[in-house]
């Protein structure tokens, strides 16, 4: 038994004014559903197998239904996942060149079963091509199960970065890790907050083409009236170095760090739902193209758990709405 005043620090909930979950005592939960769907697509689509009779590959993730989450309590991680997955496969018989298609169905991937025991069903459309189906049922099934094992490994390591918060004794540990997402290379790194607790973050890179001039697109991000038109809400805008901005009824706030007219905008940027006082750094580069302007967005410091929401915010609430405004402006011209 520990002496009075010398309790095991793993069981001590330190008093914090900001309510931070020190020493991982309290129950916390993170939804892994959106992340998992992307990871499953990344690992499963493109799997290929070949033998002397033919070649097959997983061509499409047709269906992925279910959910996944990770919870933390008293420094321990608890995983829940349950998936119903349907994949499309296609293959070619080498001798005849005949092409065939079919499905791979995984009715229940869950924590209740080991991956090696997970049911994987292979079917083929009517006609010849049983040799390809056999290839899928043997080599294909093994490769699919291996990919599912990779998903579970990533769920328990990559996705959970930062869920077990460092205590004061380990506040300086490095939590840097890299990973890939379809279409974008993301770097996951740890950002320090009070008392050394770190928030795992990702860096997003997006590009989009707009049917307008560099000057017009730049003004849409720096002129209050135009910001209010594409956001369809009141805005506060001080488009100068050190100037503040507020958009979407205060859900997006930040500060301009650098403005190079018609070339580049750098700003501190955050969503209301992010941890308090945590900002990402957003760089917008305006690149002229024939009859268009390419917008290159680099966003560093997005909390891992807000990655998908942040991408959708830029793609749906910014890019699509700006294109709608430009189209309306062209029609009224």
UniProtKB/TrEMBL annotation:
Pfam families: Aha1_N (PF09229), AHSA1 (PF08327). Coiled coil: none annotated. One of its GO terms (biological process) is protein folding. GO terms for cellular component: cytosol. One of its GO terms (molecular function) is protein-folding chaperone binding. It comes from the Eukaryota. InterPro entries: Aha1 (IPR036338), AHSA1-like_N (IPR015310), ASHA1/2-like_C (IPR013538), START-like_dom_sf (IPR023393). Residues 29-163 form the Activator of Hsp90 ATPase AHSA1-like N-terminal domain. Keywords: Stress response. SUPFAM superfamilies: Activator of Hsp90 ATPase, Aha1, Bet v1-like. Belongs to the AHA1 family. This is Activator of 90 kDa heat shock protein ATPase homolog 2 isoform X1. The gene is LOC101829423.
């Amino acid at each position: 038994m520990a002496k009075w005043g010398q309790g095991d620090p793993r069981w001590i909930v330190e008093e914090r004014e900001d309510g931070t979950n020190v020493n991982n005592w309290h129950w916390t939960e993170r939804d892994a559903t959106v992340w998992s769907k992307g990871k499953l697509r990344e690992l499963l689509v493109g799997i290929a197998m070949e033998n002397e009779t033919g070649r097959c590959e997983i061509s499409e993730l047709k269906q992925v239904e279910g959910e996944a989450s990770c919870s933390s309590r008293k420094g321990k991680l608890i995983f829940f996942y349950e998936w119903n997955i349907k994949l499309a496969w296609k293959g070619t018989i080498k001798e005849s060149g005949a092409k065939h298609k079919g499905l791979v169905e995984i009715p229940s991937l869950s924590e209740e079963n080991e991956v090696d025991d997970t049911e994987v069903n292979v079917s083929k459309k009517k006609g010849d091509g049983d040799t390809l189906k056999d290839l899928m049922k043997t080599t294909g099934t093994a490769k699919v199960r291996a990919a599912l094992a990779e998903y579970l490994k990533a769920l328990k390591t990559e996705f959970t970065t930062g869920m077990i918060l460092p205590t004061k004794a380990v506040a300086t540990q490095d939590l840097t890790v890299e990973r890939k997402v379809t279409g974008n290379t993301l770097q996951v790194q740890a950002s320090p907050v009070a008392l050394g607790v770190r928030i795992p973050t990702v860096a997003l890179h997006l590009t989009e083409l707009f049917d307008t001039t560099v000057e017009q697109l730049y003004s849409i991000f720096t002129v209050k009236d135009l910001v209010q038109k594409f956001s369809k809400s009141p805005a506060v805008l001080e488009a100068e170095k050190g100037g503040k901005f507020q958009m979407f009824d205060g859900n997006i706030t930040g500060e301009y760090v650098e403005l190079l007219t018609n070339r580049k905008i750098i700003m501190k940027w955050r969503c209301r739902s992010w941890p308090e006082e945590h900002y990402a750094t957003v760089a917008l580069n305006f690149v002229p193209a024939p009859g268009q302007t390419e917008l290159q967005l680099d966003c560093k410091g997005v909390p891992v758990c807000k990655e998908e929401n942040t991408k959708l915010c830029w793609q749906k609430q910014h890019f699509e709405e700006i294109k709608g405004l430009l189209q309306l402006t062209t029609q009224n011209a």
